[in-house]
Amino acid sequence: MDRARLKIAIQKSGRLHEESVRLLKDCGIEIKNGGNKLKTESDSFPLEIYFLRDDDIPQYVEDAVADIGIVGENVVYEKNKSIEVVEKLGFGKCRLSIAVTRSENYNGVGFLAGKKIATSYPGIVGKFLKDNNVNAEIHEISGSVEIAPGIGLADAIVDLVSSGSTLFANGLKEADTILNSQAVLVKNNGISPAQNTLLQKLLFRIRAVKKAKNNKYVLLNAPNENLKTIISLLPGMKSPTVLPLAEPGWSSVHSVLSENEFWEIIEKLKDAGAQGILVVPIEKMIV
Ligand code: PRT
Ligand code: ZN
Q1: Start-to-end C-alpha separation, the chain
Q2: Pick from 11, 68, 89, 102: CA 20 to 30 A from residue 235's CA?
Q3: Helix (H) or strand (E) holding 222
């Protein structure tokens, strides 16, 4: 009997390629040098990796050429294929936004009525206009959307934005956000139970990697008289580990802090007399 295998489609080159490969690597899935190859296999997990253009990934996953894929939500919603988003992956973050000339007085979606909008996302924009009962003309262009207003091709654009510097350099300003996007794991609707078992195994690893990325291991020295205050500041996974130091009256405290609350808590810890604070990245976190 054939052992179950999963086929995953990832971007061949571009903004999502490196982080997709790194995520798999962090999950213990080594990929032999992709180079210019269309596909490769992993020795450490029953996974075949296909390198494709991001735009093609939803179709390939719908058609089961690949069972799963890593692609931006913006592409998933634009292509509107019958595939399922199983996990947000936390990288490739950007937003699909409406932008207009900086001097324009944008006063809400109604501004777009009767206007010409240039975009590479006619599907998402069309639905957005419909949902907002706005009639506008969509002009589909495949690249360099940001130059459209400057050359008189459109009154507004809808494009991906991350830092905003592309808009700025073209005399545009971000007016509204239609969609927040990040890389996601998608799956074909008809994968077999054996393949689903593999997918769950992969998802377990992905979640452990994601969680680890969002957390730091913190070690610090605390005077025993302040130990109670310091411990109360640490959320930790359960309770922190407290070990006596060689120096009498001092303890070493170990705990886990999430990225979001990190700086605030570190400051409070210092104020409470913590010293020698070490912050260490976590590789995997299974809770
Ligand atoms: O060759 P292939 O078709 O596979 O790649 P591609 O050229 O179509 O896509 P690529 O590699 O540019 O982007 C892949 C995915 O990365 C996108 O589908 C998004 O999900 C995600 N992503 C994240 C972005 C950005 N950030 C981004 N900033 N994709 C594009 N941009 C572009 C944007 O279009 C604009 O031109 O960057 C410019 C804006 O960036 P800022 O920083 O100036 O605002
Ligand atoms: Zn593309």
Answers
A1: 35
A2: 89
A3: strand 215-223
- Nearest atom in ligand 1 to 168's CA: 43
**Angstrom distance (rounded) from CA 27 to CA 210:** 10
Q: Of 9-18, 37-46, 192-201, where does mean pLDDT reach its minimum? A: 37-46
Q: Is the pLDDT reported for residue 230 higher than 90?
A: yes
Q: Which CATH architecture has domain 6-92+182-212?
A: 3-Layer(aba) Sandwich (3.40)
Residue listed under structure tokens 């999430």: 258
Q: Which residues line ligand 1 (CB under 6 A)?
A: 11, 14-16, 53-55, 72, 74-75, 92, 94, 159-166, 181
- In this prediction, residue 35 carries a pLDDT of 63
How many CB atoms are located within 10 Å of the residue 279 CB?
A: 12
Atom 26 (ligand 1) nearest CA: 94
Q: Whose CA is nearest to atom 19 of ligand 1?
A: 72
Q: Which CATH class is domain 215-281?
A: alpha beta
Are domains 6-92+182-212 and 94-181 of this chain identical in fold?
yes
pLDDT confidence tier of residue 2, bands split at 50, 70 and 90 = low
Mutating to test ligand 1, I would choose from 15, 60, 95, 161 the residue with most ligand atoms within 8 A of its C-beta, which is: 15
This prediction's pTM: 0.92
Superfamily in which the 94-181 domain is placed by CATH: Periplasmic binding protein-like II (3.40.190.10)
User: Region 111-121: what's the mean pLDDT?
Assistant: 98
